[in-house]
Write a structure and sequence with these properties.
Chain lengths: 255, 264
């Protein structure tokens, strides 16, 4: 397989007294679509948020593109936290899509998309606009470029959010339950966009409850429970022949 | 009943000669009064400018993860909200008496530059400082409430795009916080307009001191207080209208439609 994009080596995270990640070992390769499933509170979203340093890892090592996430090791292996500017720089190459879209409500769809390219990447405004329109066309919303988020449906908002993340030309896309807040009839459009993106070769980590998507689009499927990876493998194998009782119970409940 | 009371009041306003409307009219545009009005407006504008700018800084400091930074911000609000603004105005106006000379140089060593602080901080500046520093303490709490009202997902989404903390504040959080910040800030501005009358105690001839001087000479207390009140009312009205338009500007994308209106 091709080069690893994300490498997790015994990643641990605790919130107060609760250990939410109890030593996660995972590798995501370039071009791979990894789906993560598991009951709520199993730590899957927390793990995703660790990948772009929205949460800081407490133990173990987490690498993206060979670089430690959120910190730097000196010659003796001592870890130092990166400052605001350095963390922000790392995040530029990682797109993230949230369950609740989090579009900026005071900006139009197009303004949402070009905000980071112009203010962060320092791209020329007119070029950013052209690129931004292209991104909106890719997600099927070129005609809604001037609409404010409140005038868009949930599915449209989520597609704008995907376009916004793609506008920074990321090497890795993280999806945190991207369809969980949507009305059932709107889920399809968002999944279509994600499927397209997967086919274009994007490396993706998707926390989801959509078994159909995981089976059809995913290259690998990971089952999280109680802060640990219980089972991982090819989606078809994990879904059709789960080896562990906990995986079997979970799959029985969601399908 | 209410109408009757209003009618009686109107009647007395017109018929009671002690109101002396011709005198009110004559002094409404008197030089001293207009000059006082101008000073009042200047104090309001500069004090609010300091109050808002410093208020934002203090609010952001207060929400910092660094305990020293947030502690300093807390202490600032504690001190300036805890002492009367009148005392602060008098203090800043006469701070020159406390430190008659300000100098730049090595402590206990050679001094490079001297200032006579009575010249450096004239009473005018003292009033603006007193009002502005006090206002910043109140504004910081208003700004903090506004920042807290913005969903945390907004700063996360901005951070995930690679935006640094300052940019997130300036471009994403503060513009949304404005919706919450503006109405109480309008209140503060209107309140400030009237609080500037405290400057009369340090012998600054703003609007209130101006009419005081006039009725001190002609003993027409009531008509001249009416003169001042009319100007305060007029400016307050203009400010309210301005606030309306600023609110509209910052409600882009979140205009609340009446209940029962079409959802989308």
């Amino acid at each position: 397989m091709s080069a690893p994009v994300v490498v997790a080596d015994g990643v641990r995270k605790r919130f107060g007294d609760v250990e939410v990640l109890k030593g996660i070992d995972l590798t995501v390769h370039s071009g791979e679509v990894m789906c993560i499933i598991g009951p709520s509170g199993s730590g899957k979203s927390t793990f995703l948020r660790c990948i772009n340093a929205l949460e800081m890892v407490d133990g173990g090592r987490l690498f993206v593109q060979g670089q430690l996430v959120g910190c730097r090791a000196d010659a003796s292996g001592e870890l130092y936290r990166l400052n605001d500017r350095e963390v922000a720089k790392c995040r530029q190459h990682i797109g993230m899509v949230f369950q609740r879209f989090n579009l900026f409500p005071h900006m139009t769809a197009l303004q949402n998309v070009i905000e980071a390219p112009t203010r962060v990447a320092g791209r020329d405004r007119s070029r950013a606009r052209t690129d931004g329109m292209e991104m909106l066309r890719r997600v099927g919303l070129a005609d809604r470029a001037d609409a404010y988020p409140r005038d868009l449906s949930g599915g449209q908002q989520q597609r704008v959010a995907i376009a916004r993340a793609l506008a920074m030309e990321p090497e890795l896309m993280l999806f945190d339950e991207p369809t969980s807040a949507l009305d059932p009839e709107l889920v399809g459009d968002v999944l279509d966009v994600m499927r397209q993106l997967a086919h274009s070769g994007m490396t993706m980590v998707v926390v989801t409850h959509e078994m159909g998507f995981a089976r059809e689009v995913g290259d690998s499927l990971v089952f999280f429970d109680d802060g640990a990876v219980v089972e991982a493998g090819h989606p078809g194998d994990v879904i059709n022949h789960p080896q562990h009782q906990r995986t079997q119970d979970f799959l029985a409940r969601v399908s | 009943m209410l109408l009757l009371a209003v009618a009686m009041l109107a009647n007395s306003l017109v018929t009671n000669a002690a109101w002396d409307w011709p005198l009110v009219w004559r002094f409404l545009f008197a030089r001293t009064v207009l000059h006082g009005l101008l000073l009042t407006l200047e104090f309001t504008v500069f004090a609010m400018a300091i109050g808002i700018a410093l208020g934002i800084v203090v609010a952001v400091m207060r929400m910092s993860g660094n305990p020293i930074v947030s502690g300093v911000a807390w202490a600032y609000a504690w001190f300036f909200r805890g002492t009367p603004v009148l005392v602060q105005i008098i203090f800043w106006s006469f701070v020159g008496a406390l430190y008659p000379y300000l100098s730049l140089g090595i402590p206990f060593g050679h001094e490079f530059v001297f200032f006579n602080s009575n010249q450096l901080i004239p009473v005018y500046v003292g009033v603006v400082l007193g009002l502005g520093l006090n206002e910043a303490a109140y504004m910081s709490e208003i700004v903090r409430a506004g920042i807290l009202s913005v969903d945390h997902g907004q700063s996360e989404a901005a951070a995930a795009l690679g935006m640094q903390h300052r940019l997130v504040m300036r471009r994403i959080v503060l513009p949304q916080a404005m919706r919450i910040i503006i109405p109480p800030t309008g209140n503060e501005t209107i309140s400030m307009l009237k609080t500037t009358s405290l400057a009369s105690v340090v012998a600054v001839t703003e609007l209130f001191k101006a009419v005081q001087q006039i009725y001190g000479a002609n003993y027409k207390y009531i008509p001249l207080l009416v003169v001042a009140s009319l100007w305060y009312l007029l400016v307050t009205s203009v400010l309210s209208i301005g606030q309306h338009y600023i609110e509209k500007r910052f409600s882009r994308g979140v205009t609340v439609r009446p209940v029962g209106g079409r959802a989308r």
